Amino acid sequence: MKRIAVILFLVFILAWMNQVQKMNWVNFNWFNIPNPEELYLLEYPKNVSGEVMHFEVYSSKKYPCSVFICNATVDKTLTEGYNTIEVGMESCGSDTQTILLCGESLVRFYSHRINSSFSNESIDAKFSAATNKRTLRLDVNFTSKLNDAAYKNFEVKVDGNSLLRPTYLFRNGISESHETEELSLEPGQHTIELSYAGRTLDTKSVSIDAPPFPYIDVVNILLSAAIALVVYREYSTDWLTSFLLFFGASFSALALQLQLHNNLGFSEWIVPFLLALGVVLLWNSKKKQAQIDVFKAVRKEAIIFGVVFTAVIAALVLKFGPVDWWGAYYYRNVQTALEEGNTLFYDKLSYLGRNFTYPPVFFQIASEVSLLLGQYNYESIRLPFHLLAVFVYSVSLYLLFRKFKRWQERVAGATIFATHAFVMIFSSTVTLHVLAYSFMNLSLLLMERKENMLKILSAVFLSFALSAHPTCILLFPVYVYAMGLFKIDWKRISDAAVILISASAISLIFYMPIFMRNGLPYETAPTLWGYFVSYGFIGLVYDLQFLIPIALITALFGVVKKPLQLAVLLLVLAVLANALVAFRINLIIAIMLSFLFPLTFGEELKDSYVMSIFFLFILANLFFIPVLFSGTTTWCEWVYANDMCVKPMRFIDKFTSTSDSVAINPEYGHIETYVGQRKVLADLYVEYAPSDKFYAEYNFYNEQDIRYLQGYNISLMVLDDNGRMRDLAYSDRIYDNSFIHMYR
């Protein structure tokens, strides 16, 4: 035993040294969250009629800066906040480039000399306001008399609070123009004010109606509690599994209520009827077993595991959150579902506007939970709702290992799975995955039971897992194989197949409306981003980290154990496929490894030395996961987006028109639509995506060529310096934080 412990310890030391070297080579931040300096233009001229040019710029700090104009250099000191800069135009020709350089940040614009026309300039505006559910539309009509064509910055206040400061281009001379803005407001009475340069131009009062409280959902939750109670009392099910079943039934009822009533137009009482029918059928089919599912010791371990895992996730979220580059898409569309009251809506921001086609269950549950809690903004409940889902998920995950006889085996298997990088990442960021896999775990727990009614419940919960995330259709058979301890049991396989086929059929309740509106699903650019994207062996290393030596010794020792030989071979093939074919196979590796390791080393884990050395690998993973979360110095995020990315998107949200359309690195598309709230040419939701828009944006970003954007009415272009410096040399550069740059 001790010899194995020594071998494990030596492997751990070598793995630690190798991992630290790689982390330094990639330039990880090592917990230092960057605080970028910002420089951006607010008002600047496109024509200049006099001998002095004025422009307004914001600086996030006091800066010694230089203005380069007409072959001259003028030194300026900017204060923190808004600055008005004056420079002379005496030596300038007809076309002028003005550059403001402050530290590593640079903004610039191009202007043209003209003759003066007016002694007195003016801008005036009136607007009309119209509401549609939670959306306020402002139609603004401007009249202006200006010497110089220029970008002018206005302010929209709601109840005295500055909500939007859009910048518009005005022509020189006397002109009229029209702009449209759309704002999402909380229910209630609001006063809207439009102003320019501190002068109020127009005001209006509007009213936003609150959606009705979903009393029918309360009825559904009470009936879900009745189902859980019947299963607990009449089917000899332990209280912890019944508790998980209550959450599964309640969340399922919320999703089904919105789907059948709001989306498909059925009576609002159809879901309560189905739940009541379920209570009756469960009662009439009751059949007590002699022994409960989960022993007291295992329940206690599961709760402790759930509390610890949830606490770790909460710490990661609070330290590095709350915006991540993929979950941002889900959060934004939960809010849209909440405002629209359904999930068959039109997504105005993704790919310049398209039908919402994501599997709907998570969005339905999250939006209904918000309404039940009286919240009209999902952000107000997002963290507590996420942590509740994480707790349910982690407890149900631990119970999947209940067949192992010793606590050391159960703990080893659960911690291997839980500290896999991808598991930690989605558990910290994407509630959708957590909820989908919680449904799947509950289905797996009930599948083990002999009663037909509980197997039916297993199929029902699996259908909601599939309707939240379709990868469950592949993961479910792997779990069945692993939970059977890799034995070929044809009766078990037959039961699992029936449950999977039945669940797939039930899930069509959620998928058929999507298919009927949009056709069968397809992926644009599946090898660039999608289910066939692969990051090679480097991606495998960062995904598994200190589980790699665990996987190697499991394969070496497990291959000599006859019942495990096929499973070990499949594990090795999965590792190769993960590196060479598809990154998303990583969860299959995590499932296989988390069951194979305790099966291979069950006896050895009883030794305290071996168990202690094993936990060194687990703790090392827990240490390096936050390093991944903190990101690198050459990319603004790996998991959560830090301020290098978030602050530019806040600039878009605050200082651009809601009518603007954005071209950006597709990898940052979700962050832009979530924080920036502007239409984007393409993002990473590539299912049902228009390929022309994806490749137009992808090629624009990689080649820095605006010709790819022709025909898409793009008004704002965003580049970043990930991997190399990028710039659009002949465009106005209006924002810079030394990593992300924006152009008009």
In a nutshell, what does this entry contain?
The protein is of the alpha+beta class. The protein is built from 22 helices and 23 strands.
How many E-type strands?
A: 23
Provide the low-confidence segments as ranges.
none
Number of helices: 22
Quick one: biggest sheet? 13 strands, mixed
Rg from alpha-carbon coordinates: 29 Å
Distance between the terminal alpha carbons, to the nearest Å? 67 Å
Please characterize this protein's 3D structure.
The structure is a single chain. The chain is α+β, with helices and mostly antiparallel strands. It folds into four domains: 39-112, Sandwich (Immunoglobulin-like); 122-208, Immunoglobulins (Immunoglobulin-like), CATH 2.60.40.10; 215-276 and 293-322 and 351-629, no CATH class; 643-743, no CATH class. The chain is built from 22 helices and 23 strands. The strands form four sheets. Strands 1, 3, 6, 11, 12, 13, 15, 16, 19, 20, 21, 22 and 23 form a 13-stranded mixed sheet that branches. The protein has a five-stranded mixed sheet with strand order 2-8-7-4-5, with no helix packed on it. A three-stranded antiparallel sheet has the order 9-10-14, with no helix packed on it. Helix 9 runs parallel beside helix 19. The chain is globular.
